[in-house]
Specification:
Blueprint: E1 2-8, H1 17-27, E2 33-40, E3 57-64, H2 83-94, H3 101-109, H4 116-120, H5 123-136, H6 142-161, E4 169-172, H7 176-189, E5 193-197, H8 201-211, H9 220-237, E6 240-243, H10 246-254, E7 262-264, E8 286-291, H11 300-313, E9 317-322, H12 329-341, E10 347-351, H13 356-359, E11 364-367, H14 376-383, E12 388-391, H15 396-401, E13 411-414, H16 419-431, H17 433-450, H18 453-468, H19 474-487
Parallel strand pairs: 1-2, 1-4, 2-3, 4-5, 5-6, 6-7, 8-9, 8-11, 9-10, 11-12, 12-13
Helix pairs in contact: 2-5, 5-6, 7-9, 8-9, 11-12, 11-16, 14-17, 18-19
Length: 488
């Protein structure tokens, strides 16, 4: 079986999180061939892989969203689109109606043009933007609307007109552009399509756009609706939709996904992989860790504000922020400046490191994200019996507090952006070694019993077998059925 995984903004350019999940999935199935469709923001990322690619990954098909900058054409053609074609295109840009994605794929791929810019310079496109301006944006500058919509749909149209490698099964690991490519692959090649949604992509884009300076206030809704519209492509065309925890499933249903398609398969780790980890430094300090990329959605600035309060209260504390910072150097510099402004003395940005080299010396872990799925960082920390203090995002509450299990709390949950409340919880744990030990052991037991790597891998083997018709995995399929029955 040849499986095509479709990833946006993650593997193999970025480490941790979804990328680690993809790498783990492929390495656990060495006899299965994989193709990666890797979507990145800029062409300068080409070939800049952060992973040693496994031997069963036979192709990396790279797509760059800035390729539209190379599109040039003359103005004024008319393609005489039908009323149905015009209505479907208008639904895409306005967010007022449902898009017929199969029709859209056919129309865009069959346009008699040399490049996408040629269509966006046409009279048909001009008419569509004029209609949008009159109906939805009569009070904003027309030229701004024109170029805003162009920048939205240029990358999308390039993706739709591009080649999609052949595979036996397509598996997108988010909605958005990855979801559109998955839906396109299903339509073109008539093969099964899966979606695994770690966080809710459209909600994450909404949070980013609300805070973004590059989007004028009167166009924020336009961009937000657009990303929700993109998500509808794979929600409507996927054969199976997999999510990591119950709350995400409810959101997917609210966003229009058929509940009959959705299964919950949590992430998992093998606690045996962490059994040899031990403390190598003296217990003269309380060492707080964060396994995290230094990017805005992880809200490192909140983490620093929290730690500033902790450091003022306690004399012997350190904060180790472990993860890459190259993804957003401007944000990283802002974090360094904030640490200096707050007079923080003992916070260290380690960059990319071997996390296992640090875990044994950490007393507690923190996560300050404004959006998450089901963080592997929490599972890895629990595998080392380290308690966590987290913001209330994604599946963090379920991991920390459990869902009607017998294991007890494994840390504390605080509201997003409430750094003072997080500081209070961190100080409480720093001052109480017995509580840290109890919470850490609770986390270990929860992961060891409910979030195992073997269950995670066997569940995906079973779904691949069922959707792709691979009879060699029938044992995995029966294991999966048993697993889902027990969960129910």
């Amino acid at each position: 079986m040849k499986i095509c995984l479709i990833a946006e903004g993650s593997y193999p350019y970025v480490t941790g999180g979804v990328s680690s999940w993809i790498h783990s999935l492929m390495t656990a199935m060495p006899t299965t061939e994989f193709i990666i469709i890797a979507i990145a923001a800029e062409r300068k990322q080409q070939g800049q892989f952060k992973y040693t690619l496994p031997e069963n990954l036979i192709q990396v098909h790279e797509i760059f969203l800035d390729a539209h900058l190379e599109e040039h054409s003359k103005w004024g053609k008319r393609f005489n689109l039908s009323d149905a074609q015009k209505q479907n295109l208008f639904a895409l840009v306005s967010g007022d109606q449902q898009v017929n994605w199969e029709r859209l794929f056919e129309d865009i791929r069959n346009l008699p043009i040399q490049n996408v810019g040629e269509f966006l310079s046409s009279k048909d496109y001009y008419d569509m933007i004029e209609h949008l301006a009159k109906t939805n944006y009569s009070q904003v500058p027309y030229t701004e609307l024109f170029w805003t919509v162009s920048s939205m749909i240029l990358p999308l149209f390039l993706i739709i007109r591009g080649d999609v490698p052949k595979a036996d099964l397509y598996h997108a690991v988010s909605t958005g552009y990855a979801g559109v490519i998955g839906a396109l692959a299903k339509v073109i090649h008539q093969k099964p399509l899966l979606l695994t949604e770690h966080g809710i992509y459209s909600r994450e884009r909404e949070e980013e756009i609300i805070k973004a300076n590059w989007v004028h206030g009167y166009f924020k809704d336009l961009w937000i609706n657009y990303f929700y519209t993109l998500s509808s492509a794979i929600y409507s065309l996927a054969d199976e939709v997999i999510t990591l925890f119950d709350r995400n499933m409810q959101i997917q249903i609210e966003l229009g996904c058929d509940p009959q398609k959705i299964r919950v398969i949590p992430n998992g780790v093998d606690v045996a992989d962490f059994a040899s980890i031990s403390r190598t430094l003296p217990e003269d300090k309380i060492r707080i860790g964060a396994i995290v990329r230094v990017v805005p959605i992880k809200d490192i600035k909140m983490m620093l504000q929290m730690f500033a309060l902790v450091e003022r209260k306690l004399p012997n504390v350190e904060l180790h922020i472990m993860g890459p910072f190259e993804e957003d150097l401007e944000y990283y510099e802002e974090c360094l400046q904030l640490a200096e402004t707050l007079h923080i003395k003992n916070a260290y940005f380690t960059g990319m490191v071997q996390i296992k080299d640090y875990l044994g010396n950490l007393d507690l872990l923190v996560l300050t994200s404004i959006s998450e799925g089901q963080p592997l960082a929490i599972l890895e920390g629990f595998a080392c019996a380290i308690p966590f203090v987290c913001t209330n995002v994604g599946g963090c509450r379920e991991l920390i507090e459990g869902t009607n299990d017998v294991f007890g709390p494994a840390g504390a949950i605080v509201p997003v952006m409430h750094y003072e409340e997080m500081a209070g919880q961190v100080i409480k744990l720093c001052e109480d070694g017995n509580l840290r030990k109890t919470y850490g052991q609770n986390g270990y037991e929860r992961v060891a019993h409910l979030y195992t790597r073997s269950s995670f891998i066997n569940s995906y083997k079973a779904i691949y077998a069922q959707c792709g018709g691979n009879t060699a995995w029938q044992e995995s399929a029966s294991n999966y059925e048993s697993f889902t029955e027990n969960k129910a």
